[in-house]
Design goal:
eight-stranded mixed sheet, 23 helices, alpha/beta, eight-stranded parallel sheet, 16 strands, 13% strand, TIM Barrel, 3 domains, Glucose Oxidase, domain 1, 45% helix, Enzyme I, Chain A, domain 2
Length: 601
């Protein structure tokens, strides 16, 4: 019998495949695909960990005092029995060999399978043994983390998915940004998570991969089992477990239609983004790693509008990249783009993107009840001037190889602006004194805090351009944690306050002759394309997979006829519906627009 699980639709399309569960654990578990040549070595890690823990149990039992309760020895016997059961280590070894999971992931996957079997036992005593199993697996995971850590595959090695012919769908309570970075280059066909909102990191990466995703599905990871056959409906926010043949065929038909539509949009790749009335629109790409620039070029982007440099700092066990490593990464990104501009945001760590392995003294955001309001982005950079200056030096040196723009995140005050500019001047003097070649950069401020939007003239005095980060601007304007599914329904990019701030920033920047772009999720959502054009925006930055659908809307737009749209939407009780109605009718009067306008095209 099929089960339906509802969540938030965050990345469109349909995914059909076998469920791969990433189980929650009290021990942090790396999820990495193992190279074929390393499989047996990875299974050997499992067996070595089992042997070590078995010896620990033997020693504990041997050292029990003579007056110890008999139950303690019996408990150790139970743990030893579970440890030696082939249903644990043997089956985990099969996950390694067949799915190429690393040892830690394989143990977590098998724990999930066995825990469900325990839950279904009628005997209460046997059901309670699940806690013993969890303790054994936790001990194994800790041993794997301590011993032979160098054998764990490096997550930065462009991991692949070895699921074979059958497509796989990732299901988890939540997916950490570090894991998402690891999974990004695998071939999962969809994502499902219990938690998250429409602009949570999982949702953003799923859209960047152009694969269907449903987040905030609450109990999905509890209801779905390893290897269940599931459908992910990224349009409706629906997950169907064990679908009937009729439902399965219907969704396969929708998959084929979606592929045809993607093919049609791909033909626009080399078409310049120019509106019907001749307005040229700049469509840029958001990327996470230097080599992502190739996808931007293939999508037809004319540059990189946002390189999220913090991903260079992740999956490193807390060891930060030095100046040379960063310089090489930024230089590679510049060279991949072949003379097109590359906008690199300084590190934006904090909130939903913590660094692994750093102590609270190194990154104090962990002590903040709400990390989104804590020591993150430029606040952290300014509190760590040595780290910040290393990154700035690397950025200026990379600018020697091509056009680079530097974007500063989360600025909110003139004091922060002054500190940032002082650090930049200091770095330029250092490079000059050291005789190292460097280039000039355009300097931009990311407008994502209402305080910055409301005092924009101050920012325009000091910066060459601004980039509106709508994800955080909405979060901070509406006091909504965008990663919290409990309030995700309140996260509203159509809120009049949000639209008013965006429109004001665009108009002020244009009046001052300064560049302005939108690099948040609104830029890549075709539902907002005409409205942003009506507000005067001519530079959009989005994930490469979204460029074609936004370009289609741009090519069909006439900015002169769109002019009234901004006022109509701003004055409406329901801005989203007012925008859709206006576009469907062609504005006022309805006959003023010749030719069709496709909504949700």
């Amino acid at each position: 019998m099929s089960i339906q699980v509802f969540g938030l639709p965050v990345s469109r399309g349909v995914a059909i495949g076998r469920a791969v569960l990433v189980a929650s654990s009290r021990v942090d578990v790396p999820h990495v695909f193992v190279d074929p040549d390393d499989l047996e070595a990875e299974v050997a890690r499992l067996h070595a960990a089992r042997d070590h823990v078995s010896t620990e149990f033997d020693n504990l039992k041997r050292d029990l005092p003579a007056d110890a309760p008999a139950e303690l020895a019996a408990l150790l016997d139970v743990h030893q029995m579970l440890l030696q059961d082939e249903a644990l280590i043997g089956a985990a070894g099969e996950w390694v060999r067949t799915r190429h999971y690393n040892a830690e992931w394989a143990l977590s996957a098998q724990l999930e399978v066995l825990a469900r079997q325990f839950d279904e036992m009628e005997d209460a005593y046997i059901r309670e043994r699940k806690a013993d199993l969890e303790q054994v697996v936790e001990r194994l995971l800790r041993q794997l983390a301590q011993a032979d850590a160098s054998r764990v595959p490096d997550a930065q090695r462009h991991p692949r998915d070895f699921g074979g012919e059958e497509p796989l769908v990732l299901v988890a309570s939540d997916i950490a940004p570090a894991d998402m970075l690891s999974f990004k280059r695998s071939v999962f066909t969809g994502f499902v998570t219990d938690v998250g909102g429409k602009t949570s990191h999982t949702a953003i990466v799923a859209r960047s991969m152009d694969i269907p995703a449903v987040v905030g599905a609450r109990q999905a990871s509890s209801l779905i089992r390893q290897d269940d056959y599931i459908i992910v409906d990224g349009d409706a926010g629906l997950v169907i477990v064990d679908p009937s043949p009729i439902v399965l065929e219907e969704y396969r038909f929708r998959q084929r239609q979606s592929e045809l539509e993607r093919g049609r949009l791909a033909r626009l790749r080399h078409t310049p983004a120019v509106t019907l009335d001749g307005e040229r629109v700049e469509l840029l790409a958001n990327i996470e790693m230097p080599d992502d620039g190739q996808a931007a070029l293939e999508a037809g982007a004319v540059g990189v509008g946002l390189f999220r440099s913090e991903f260079l700092f992740m999956n490193r066990g807390g060891k930060l990249p030095d100046e040379e490593e960063q310089y090489e990464a930024y230089r590679r990104a510049v060279e991949v783009m072949k003379g097109m501009p590359v906008t690199i945001r300084t590190v934006d760590i904090g909130a939903d993107k913590p660094l692994d392995g750093l102590s609270t003294s190194e990154l104090r955001h962990e002590s903040v009840l709400n990390p989104a309001l804590g020591l993150r982005a430029i606040r952290w950079s300014l509190s760590e001037p040595s780290m910040f200056r290393k990154q700035l030096r690397a950025l200026f040196r990379a600018a020697h190889h091509g056009p680079v723009k530097v974007l500063i995140p989360m600025l909110a005050s003139q004091r922060e602006i002054r500190q940032t500019l002082d650090n930049i001047a200091h770095v330029q003097r250092q490079l000059t004194d050291a005789g190292k070649p460097y280039g000039q950069v355009e300097l931009g401020a990311m407008i994502e805090v209402p305080a910055a939007a409301l005092t924009l003239p101050i920012f325009l005095q000091h910066f060459d351009f601004i980039s509106i980060g709508t994800n955080d601007l909405i979060q901070y304007t509406l006091a909504i944690d965008r990663a919290d599914e409990a309030v995700a329904h309140l996260y509203d990019p159509w809120h009049p306050a949000v639209l008013s701030l965006i429109r004001s920033c665009i108009e002020q920047a244009r009046a001052a002759g300064k560049g302005v772009s939108v690099c948040g999720e609104m830029a890549g959502d075709p539902a907002f394309t005409e409205l942003l054009l009506a507000m005067g925006l001519r530079s959009f930055s989005m994930h490469p997979t979204q460029v074609a659908s936004v370009k289609q809307r741009v090519l069909r737009a006439d900015t002169r006829r769109l002019l009234p749209l901004a006022n109509v939407v701003m004055q409406a009780a329901d801005p989203e519906q007012a925008c859709a109605d206006w576009l469907l009718s062609g504005g006022a009067p309805p006959a003023s627009v010749a030719g069709p306008v496709v909504v949700n095209g």
